[in-house]
Amino acid sequence: MSPDPHIPHIPSGERFTVARGTLLLDRLMTLVIKFGGWLVMLAVFAIFAFIFVQILPLFGKPSVKAVGQVAVPVEDVVVMGVDEWGELPFFLSRSGELHFADLPRDLTTRTYGRVGAQDSMKLEIGPRGLFAVDTDLPEKTWTAFYYDAYTGEIALGSADGRIALLKINYRTEFLEDRSRRVVVAVESELLPPLSVSEAPIREIAFYDSSTNRSIAFLQEVDGQTKVTLQTYTVRSSLFGAATLVADKQINLDTAITDEKPERLLIGGRGDRILVTTEGGWLYYLSLRGDQLERVQKLRPFAEKSDPSIFSIDWLLGKQSLILTSESGANVTLASYLDADAGQILYTRIKDFSQLEGGGATDFSAAQRNRGFLLANEGQLSLRYSTTGEIRWEVTTDYQPKNIALGPRWDSIFAYDTDERLHVYALDDPHPNAGWKAFFGKIWYEGKSAPEFEWQSSSGTSDFEPKLSIVNLFFGSIKGTLYAMLFAMPIAVLAAIYVSQYLRPEAKRYIKPAMEIMASLPSVVLGFLAALWLAPLIEDRVPSVLLMLITIPLSAALLGYFWGRLPQTIRNFIRPGSEWLVIIPVILVVGYIAWQLGPTLEALVFRVYDPDIGAKVGNFRQWWVETTGGSFEQRNSLVVGLMMGFAVIPIIFTISEDALTNVPPYLTSASLALGASRWQTTWRVILPTASPGIFSATIIGFGRAVGETMILLMATGNTPIMEWNIFNGMRTLAANIAVELPEAPQFSTLYRTLFLGAMALFLLTFFLNTVAEITRQHLREKYKTI
Amino acid sequence: MSQETTTTSQKEDFEPFIQIKDDYNFWYGSAQVLFDLNLNIPKKQVTAFIGPSGCGKSTLLRSINRMNDLIEGIVHKGDITIGGQSIYDPALEVISLRKRIGMVFQKYNPFPKSIYENIVFSLRIAGRNRRSELDEVVERSLRGAALWDEVKDRLHESALSMSGGQMQRLCIARAIANSPEVLLMDEPCSALDPIATGKVEELIHELKKEYTIVIVTHNMQQAARVSDRTAFFYLGKLIEYDITDTIFMNPKNDQTEAYVSGRFG
Ligand SMILES: Nc1ncnc2c1ncn2[C@@H]1O[C@H](COP(=O)(O)OP(=O)(O)OP(=O)(O)O)[C@@H](O)[C@H]1O
Ligand SMILES: [Mg+2]
Q: Residue A644, SS3?
């Protein structure tokens, strides 16, 4: 064998070795690519993990730690309350004496609780000791007490039919060394004698609004229970001191309560009283003029073996009542506007699990949420009304007599029969969160039925937050579906037309045009939707409807008749240039439809106009009257059109690629068999390209689900759950944008927004997974050789 | 000019079915690939087109059923008639023309559907969906393509699960399902092994009883075995067209002789 003259003379051993540099580079690149891949996976996983960590606390249980106990020797305590910081609890004894106990600072703050104080730890009374404050009230035997922890007001009724008011004003002073000291000032007022019997007052209720006060009380007169409602107006003098001037006195007509009254509360604006009776009935009476009228009589524990009402108390906001029965059954009643009766009624909205060991002997409502604390002989139970959940429960080795929840939802105070004060640190940052709150139907106060609802904040502090993710999820799906309804047919049909029919020269312009369309910032589209499209179609809905029907219809009809024309006429237009005929037709039809809209409106969508006294065309009103739904300017139609516009390019591009990539030999096979272009498209191209078109749709769907700006700007962002095309929605993505400025870090809302983000993440994850599986399946089915 | 270069036997003792006439010329854009062709193809016989690669055999074949129309910028001059009717008649629908002409491609191209659906495709697009008719056509076509015994138990399996030779015969069965008049075959055996090739060749023998067949092949033995007449093309021109035996045993043109004896091409 002679050596090949073309190969330079290198020993064969060297000729076939690979340069070390090549090998090294190859290994290096392999490593870099692997590393990059892992890094991407890691980043995705890290985001997921981060969001997960953010939302985890929402589902946590509170931590309650016993801080300690201390002897507070005050005789016969009837009311106990506590200041903002839990440093200066007060103890009101039956004789009317008021004591305060100085407790160590930061006793109950969360940090203290977290550090983990021991149950055995001894609490010491601080330097100010246990001190009494003179209330300025005369020496009397007090027989009835009502304490409103939110305002710090106490109403007292005496054995001789007199009423006094006491107000405990806590104030925080900051000393020079920047340390904090809680000080207290007590106001009191003995109300002038009322023209009632001098019999002892057995029960008392008090209501305070800025302009008037109401007091209701029970007296035992001649073996009969008398109910009296006394209203006062507030006269304030020049110097700010307010005096109460008796206004009206209404004595309850016994016919209203045919049973023996036991307890009572005042609600509404001081014009509603709620009276419980021995038989377990709750009477709801309303002040109309000078008369108390019976509005409702209900029996909250009707189906229980002991229907009697053992305790009844207001929750924060005075819309919900917490009741317990003698055996410890526990329910929430709340007022709502009854549509049939046309007035406010009370109904049972929550049923808690039984409080073991009997009804609540004392109650304390939280001052910043819908939580409350119940106590009976050997039990403390912290519950949450919105979710109907028990947050924490403990069997005590003492007998709690008076309880108080720290106003900052961070401490629990229980005073026992041995005159000892037990203090617990409560760490429960998200009491209103949980599976039920986010995903369940909840019967909120003020509502007539359980609902999914999202309303995270409101002007008033005693508002009940509603955090249903379901509404937002629904909103995302609604917006996306309307957009897809519009975008899908257009994008896929356009892709079919461009890939199968259009002449390749024209195709060169379509694709870049689509890319420009895809690159339009969504904020521009949202802006256009909100400020141009929404007002434009607001009064022209019939025109839009007409266009949506006539344009596709005329295109289809034109196609049909075109196919019927003799070949000789069709030869004037080259195959692939048919759009030269279609576009003018569509423009003309669209214009006519737009102009005909008002005529259609006047003919079909007629409503009665009281001003003219005749029927006139008005689609807006017609829609509202016919469907009962609302009509908003920024509605799903606008979103559908604009967001559809935003997703058309992506669906189009991917579908077009998929269709173009169908092997040409399949097209040839079909055409050679005498199939028309449409038959080829429908029977061969579309099935083969279906995996790609399916992916395109899902990717478009994913894009629409995550879209924020268009939805934010083009809808009213009301989190409703209706399919009505003429009102809006609030999507998961838009919600995050809307609420972010209102969500302090680590608050429940903040974490709930992360939950929304997680839902979005999972939704797209789920969609992509389903899409990928289906795509694989389709690809297997329609794979070509 | 055409008379000078094309060598044909003096008298054509057959009834022409496909006529390529009036000096048929064909251009892809500005590139001319067919020059002044005149050629009569007999009815119910096998006509083979042979010639070196790139000489325009496929182009001519695709002209007959106007598959070239799919390509941008084609121009032609002259005429082609089938059964006396011009394929370029403006009143003629291309679709109905293609229904008359079955085509088998060089590379088998079954649809990603079942064997059954592949065969009935031409019926379905004509709106013929009666089950009994379809069943009958499937059996007849598969028998016609000598495939029935091999696949009769798996008619509803994907066509792509078959072997290459089976797929090519399936494509033949598909092409004859609608009983066309003409069958165009562009190198139908180029992707097949000798055994499958043999089967397809036997098949062509059978099929010519009913169809007018035009086959393009690079395989001289195959042309000699299956065809009745053979046309030899070179650089877009028809060099010699005669009875197959004459072309192979006794070619009148030197180029033809050189090509069939394997000295160039
Ligand atoms: N779509 C096309 N566009 C432009 N030129 C083409 C096209 N198809 C074929 N040609 C050219 O036309 C000439 C004839 O091609 P054709 O495919 O008809 O040859 P052929 O004889 O079938 O060759 P082969 O035996 O290799 O299949 C070739 O030069 C080729 O480059
Ligand atoms: Mg060829």
A: helix
Maximum pairwise Cα distance, chain A: 139
Rounded Cα distance, A562 and A703, in Å = 37
Pocket test for ligand 1, best of B24, B49, B58, B185 (most atoms within 8 A of CB): B58
Cα gap A369→A372, rounded to integer Å: 9
Could you tell me which of A251, A307, A318, A232 has the C-alpha nearest to residue A277? A307
Lowest mean pLDDT among A349-353, B109-113, B255-259: B255-259
152-181 in chain B: CB under 8 A from chain A: 160, 167, 171, 174-175, 178
Q: Is B173 within the bounds of a domain?
A: yes
CATH number where B241 lies: 3.40.50.300
Distance from residue A666's CA to the centre of ligand 2 (Å): 17
The reply to whether B37 falls in a domain is yes
Q: How far apart are CA A26 and CA A12, in angstroms?
A: 23
Chain A hits for B121, Cβ within 8 Å: 670, 673, 675, 683
Find the domain containing B139 and state its range.
Answer: 14-260
DSSP string, A558-577: HHHHHHHS-HHHHTTS-TT-
Task: Provide residues with CB under 6 Å of ligand 1.
Answer: B 28, 31, 33, 53-59, 71
Could you report the per-residue pLDDT of A714-772, keeping only the tens digit for each?
888 888 888 888 888 999 999 999 999 888 888 999 999 999 999 998 988 888 888 88
Whole-number percent of chain A with pLDDT over 70: 95
Picking from A211, A292, A214, the residue whose alpha carbon sits closest to that of residue A251 is A292
Closest atom of ligand 1 relative to the B57 alpha carbon = 21
- Looking at the 3D structure of chain B, how many domains does it have? 1
- In this prediction the pTM is 0.83
Residue B9 belongs to a domain = no
The preferred substitution site among B24, B32, B59 for testing ligand 1, maximizing ligand atoms within 8 Å of CB, is B59
User: Position B185: which residue type?
Assistant: M
A333-347: b (≥16 Cβ within 10 Å) or e: bbbbeeeeeeebbbb
In angstroms, the CA B215 to CA B228 distance is 11
ipTM of predicted complex:
0.90
**Which atom of ligand 1 has the smallest separation from the CA of B68?**
1
Amino acid identity, residue A50? Answer: F
CA distance A643 to A710: 7
Q: Quick one: average pLDDT of A409-415? A: 92
CA A158 to chain CA mean position, Å: 46
- Cα separation, A301 vs B170, whole angstroms: 80
The owner of tokens 């917490």 is: A322
CA of B143 to the centre of ligand 2 (A): 28
pLDDT of residue B2: 40
Q: Which of A673, A777, A782, A783 to mutate to test the interface with B (most CBs of B within 10 A)?
A: A673
Cα separation, B21 vs B222, whole angstroms: 27
Highest mean pLDDT among A553-557, A751-755, B166-170, B198-202: A751-755
Q: Check CB contact under 8 Å for A673 and B72.
A: no
Structural domain contains residue B8 = no
Scan residues 313-352 of A and list those with Cβ closer than 8 Å to B.
none
Q: Are A748 and A465 in contact (CB under 8 A)?
A: yes
To test the pocket of ligand 1, the residue of B55, B103, B217 to mutate (highest count of ligand atoms within 8 Å of its CB) is B55
Q: Which residues are registered as beta bridge partners of B145?
A: none
B71 in reach of chain A (CB within 8 A): no
Is B125 within 8 Å of A675 when comparing Cβ atoms?
A: yes
Q: B229 to chain A nearest CA, in Å?
A: 25
Q: Considering only the beta carbons, identify the residue of B67, B93, B111 that sits closest to A671.
A: B67
Half-sphere exposure (Cβ direction) of A770: Cα atoms closer than 13 Å: 12
Ligand nearest to the backbone CA of B233: 1
